[in-house]
Amino acid sequence: MYSGVVPPCYPSVFYIMVGIRYINLNMLSSEEFSDAEEHMLFAITDGEANMDIGYGAQRIGRGSLAIVKPNQAVHIDPFKNSISFYVITFKEILIPNSNTSNHKRKSSIFPDTGLWNCVPFSKCIDLLADIERHSHEKDELMQFYNHVRFEELLSLVLQQSVSFAPAPDLRSAVKGSIDYLKDNFAEQVTVAKLAEEVNMFPWQYSQIFKELTGQIPLSFVNNLRINQAKHLLLKTEDRIHEIAHHVGFNNEFYFNRRFSKAVGVAPGQYRKQNRSTIRVVSLFMEDLLVTLGITPVVQWFHPAWGQQDYLGLMHVPTFNVLQESYESLSKYEPDLIIARGSDYEYRTNQYEQCKQFANTDIITQDGADWRLTLRTLAERLGRVDQAEKAIQQYEDKLTSARNLLIHSKKNQTYAFIRFKVDCIVIDQQYTKPFLSEDLGITLHPMAQKLTLEESRAGVSWEWLKSLDADYIFFVFDKWHEEEIGAERLQINHPYWQEIPAVRNCCAFEVDFMTWMNHGHLASSKKLDDVLKMLI
Question: Which residues form a coiled coil (predicted)?
Fold first, then answer.
């Protein structure tokens, strides 16, 4: 049984509104405000004045907020005509719990008194006007609703807990505006309104906004809305128009158009494709599908190399990539085909065949960058969180491996050999991104001098004999063998035992399918291999 202390699921302090007033002071009058028991919140709606809370006078104007604790006197001295403002008084109430004695008070969630920021200020004004308008309600339910408005106001202020406004520079003001939009993207906004809230010209606000985000404000907001809509499409049964309204689109037709343009499919189709029961075909990307928790309905198979045994998909039917037409994939009744673009498929019109019987999506990224491909695949399948978690787990594991190698194998080199029946290939295409770029092991200079074409064409035994790399990794390629195991006869050559790494027992055979593959699971298994062999 769990014996730890379970913290309460509620805060130790609540705030209850006592009253609200709307005040106008002209330039010939000043006023002092104080309260021995309540906090006060001031929100300036118009005009300018000096405000002194005991730290010296500070200039306030439209958009200023001030929080004042009990027993603090506030002196407001208007100038330039008059100043108008709301003032709310509210009490702090301690809620005791089993882990906090009744006499022990928690610290206030208002650590600072004085001026605060609130962007956009219009949201504050709307809430204050509603609170003041309903402050005389007698009905219990109406009073509860007004208390909720008050809590929403406090939440809005506390979210931006940046004391002593205004912002020190324009970029900081826009950053505050961006942070607000991330949490309030469903609100109806315009560039003019956003710019007004931070006292800028619209063109000036848009320019700084784009410098900070790479997007114009409304595109940024729409992207936030689309991302939330994708989440709701998968996690709820809400109707499309309800989701559109919830994320900030008043027009369902416009929502469908924006969603389709951003995601590539209509909202309803996205929901259908990305349910957990979706039937997916993604040849050559099965590693990434499994990483995302999706079992493909069919997997690629090569008559010479076999299938990707390391994925554990023995029960999944295979598709012969050399002999079968893509049209035959229709018998697996896929909901979605996600394919990797290549010259071969484009030349043979394979994708057009797929489009006749299933939704077909083409990914054009370089397969070597499995992180980028995984993120793209996750975006299409609504599994971004799973992708980011998998990438972070790999990065943590990679960091540990690099630290071990740096301390024990610094400045040592490697080469990767792919033995075929008729030649010896020095592989760089599949293994260099992992060994050199991820792990930081140096490719031997002799191998570095080879062009990709020279590597593929093969090297001689005389070349291999002079290779003095500290480590050699090798696989046996069955592509051109005439009889089983023929490619293994290569290492019977007398020069093999003369290679320094072989003599020093630093030549390691690894699994062909794992190492000739780009993917999260393949890379993780390669890390295990390297640590086992070298450490």
Answer: 377-411
Domain boundary among 275, 310, 326: 275
DSSP state of 311: G
The Cβ of residue 161 has, within 10 Å, a number of other Cβ atoms equal to: 12
Among candidate residues 131, 119, 55, the one with its CA nearest the CA of residue 88: 131
Q: In this structure, are residues 157 and 43 in contact, taking their beta carbons and an 8 Å threshold?
A: no
Same domain, 270 and 131: no
The residue whose two tokens read 């491996």 is: 401
pLDDT band at 479 (very low <50, low <70, confident <90, very high): confident
| Closest CA relative to residue 503, chosen from 471, 463, 461 | 471
**Which percentage of the chain shows pLDDT scores above 90?**
38
Cα atoms in the 13 Å half-sphere on the side-chain side of 263: 31
Residue carrying structure tokens 């379970």: 6
Is 98 a residue whose pLDDT tops 60?
no
Q: What is the pLDDT of residue 156?
A: 82
Average pLDDT on 505-530 reads 94
β-strands 114-116, 65-68 pairing: antiparallel
Give the CA distances from residue 465 to residues 454, 456, 508, in Å, rounded to whole numbers and listed in that order: 17, 18, 17
- Structure-derived torsion over alpha carbons of residues 225, 226, 228, 234, reported in degrees to the nearest 10: 150
Are 28 and 151 within one domain? yes
The count of structural domains within the chain is 4
Q: How far, CA to CA in Å, does 122 sit from each of 43, 156, 187, 188, 198?
A: 11, 11, 11, 12, 11
CA angle 49, 55, 59 (to 5 degrees): 20
Closest by CA to 81, choosing from 31, 29, 24, 27, is: 27
Number of other residues whose CB lies within 10 A of the CB of residue 238: 13
Q: Which of 321, 320, 354 is nearest to 337 (CA)?
A: 354
The domain containing residue 372 runs over which residues? 280-382
Q: Which amino acid is at 44?
A: I
111 is written with which tokens? 């650590």
Among 233, 258, 275, identify where a domain stops. Answer: 275
Q: Are strands 424-426 and 442-443 parallel, antiparallel or unpaired?
A: unpaired
**SS3 assignment, position 250:** coil
CA atoms 249, 254, 255, 261: torsion sign:
negative
Instruction: Give the distance from CA 462 to its chain's centroid.
Output: 50
Residues 19 and 155 in one domain: yes
Asked whether residue 524 falls in the same domain as residue 417, the answer is: yes
What is the DSSP code (8-state) at residue 54? S
Structure tokens at 261: 């343009």
Residue 433 lies in a domain: yes
Query: pLDDT (tens digit, 9 = 90+) per residue, 107-152?
Result: 566 655 677 766 677 788 889 999 999 999 889 999 999 999 999 9
